[in-house]
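ligand=glutamine
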Amino acid sequence: MVGIHHLGFPRIGAQRELKFVLESYWRGESSRQQLLAEGARLRQQNWQRQERLDWQSVGDFSFYDQVLDTSLLWGVLPARAHRPGAHAIDDYFRAARGRSADLAEGVAAGQMTKWFDTNYHYIVPELSAETAFHLQADFYVDQVREAQQQGHRVKAVLIGPVTYLYLARGADAATRAALLPRLLPLYQELLRQLQALGVAWVQMDEPALVTDLEDVWWHAYDQAYSLLPEAGPKILLSTYFGGIGEHYQRICRWPVQGLHIDAVRAPEQVALWAAVWPKERVLSLGVIDGRNIWRSDLSALLDRIAPIHAERGESLWLAPSCSLLHVPVDLSVERGLDPELRSWCAFAQQKLEELQILAQALRAGRATVAEQLAAADAALAARRASPRVHDARVAAAMQEIASLRRQRHSSFAVRSQAQQARWSRPLYATTTIGSFPQTEDIRAVRSRHRRGQIDDAEYTRLMQAQIAHCVAEQEKLGLDVLVHGEAERNDMVEYFAEFLQGFAFSSHAWVQSYGSRCVKPPILFGDVRRPAPMTVAWARYAQSLTDKPMKGMLTGPVTLLNWSFVRDDQPRTTTCLQLALAVRAEVLDLEAAGLPIIQIDEAALREGLPLRRKDRQAYLDNAVAAFALAAHGVEDATQIHTHMCYSEFGDIMESIIAMDADVITIETARSAMQLLDAFDTLHYPNDIGPGVYDIHAPNLPSEAQIEALLRAAGRRIPAARLWVNPDCGLKTRRWQEVLPALATLVRVAQRLRQEAAAEPAPV
Ligand code: GLN
Ligand code: ZN
């Protein structure tokens, strides 16, 4: 008989209980006992949710992050986080975020980075050639006992040794891989302890297997997985976020007793594994999408699975494709979605129920779950046919794309003259990335308007006052290109999504982003259309206040896509082009309203980059095409800016060049050197504004720092094409910080400008 399990369940709680207790503990308002008790309660609740599965997972709970928990398990939290006599959990929080609940001075927080291609961030392990590991498994083993005492059949979950070393930093790959012989005995010891407790299965998460691996890692894998299966419990080697089919010969040689593969991201590998994976070993198929919120097509899945089940029987397991960490907890607490939309969705809890239906159908026949299958079929059919999903106007507009201009009229050199004729851009032109501080005041106005306590006219008046203030401050500072400040925007994606047809908003579709932070991505369920302008009135008002050029500010199609839950009934590239058409319409309206400059932010472009090199070019080509469709319908004299929030530029530079924005502003203040390296080999032909003010830190930049960054940039980029700006938007900073920082920035830019004017022009 088929088995069902899951790889991990969200730990934040359906009402974000974990967030609230964590933050209360950090503020000193809850005791450690309250925190630990809430953790135990959430684990208990989660195990109860899984009661009807064949295995209950232990080890997927975490007070902050599962990679950091693994560092704790092997005794390698950074030494700086340790305080003599402190409780382990306080050291743990110091390692995560620089401080725990105490008021004592903090330490440097652990570096945070994205977990593969998800929007979940983990704390990067810090290892070196000298690292010594010590097993500190009490907290982990205690959770196993806790589950057993509650009567559960435990499948223990661990991050596998190779993925753990692969994700670490502080030493090069070869050095980290060389730590494996030191680490494996600890895994073996823990496995023995788990076996002594009667744990039958251990799930070893090895998502690094779906990436392009260097040989050192393959050797590490050979070593790890020839040894670990001997230690005790059976090993379920678990992979997700991609396929591993091309490595099947090697992987089949590892004597692991089970293998989990992602059948959603890489459905093409299912037939292969069904054929080659020995029948006496467990094959776990991740058939339910662990990364998205849509209900599964259960009947179609059964058609696909039934023949494999007939062959393998109980050595077939079914599961979500990956941990359910990446989807919201429970649709039953959702209040924001209307009944129709709701009927199309499945959150983590509902995905477990889908698994139960599949298992029941395979075990006892489809007739025993006829009603549930019919309901799933009906929901799917309704979604497919819904007029809310399909809009003939959008289909018609998509047909027209080929006839739209997707390339600027003229080359950059010609455009730049047309732009110069419209407003004379000085050397070292200064600007900002768009947002200015989101004060209490601003948030209060927005929330009063949302609750209907002030009417539209009053709201407009109050927001215009904010814009006027922001513009006046920028004029006082002497900035060259101004912005309206984005006071009206809660979020750079949600703001636009609320204007666009095809998006919906939930009340509870929260997903953990890092630590206690959760995000609630908009739900892109249908054809995207822009019924009316979204930003034009604010931008036009801002321009009316000044003679300086005003920059209209938009979020680009790729970022709107990457930061939403996206429909799965058509290719993402199609949805992206629909978004691009909507942005294009806004761009053209801003141009018609007289805005001389328009910025299209693509903050999330790079994070959508596929894990495998072979898939990257297609992704980048589509991203460039979407940007071009959004941006390039304008006249030569309209200047297009784009902004990106990262400096790892080297490997995508050619695509960034291909986007052909007149100006690109990018994050570099912290890592100026990294960006500049890319310019040694590739020439960026248009204007560029490397960030010179690190807005993620509360520190004010000095004149000397800004000047040093600009001079470093000036060695690679001629002054004529160099802009001066902060790293990113200023919305999280306070005016007291922003004003002096920008004043310094302007002062340095003006000084360099005068210097350049005094020098004889190069011949
Ligand atoms: N224009 C946005 C802002 O200034 C850009 C934010 C971002 O790049 N993350 O806030
Ligand atoms: Zn940014």
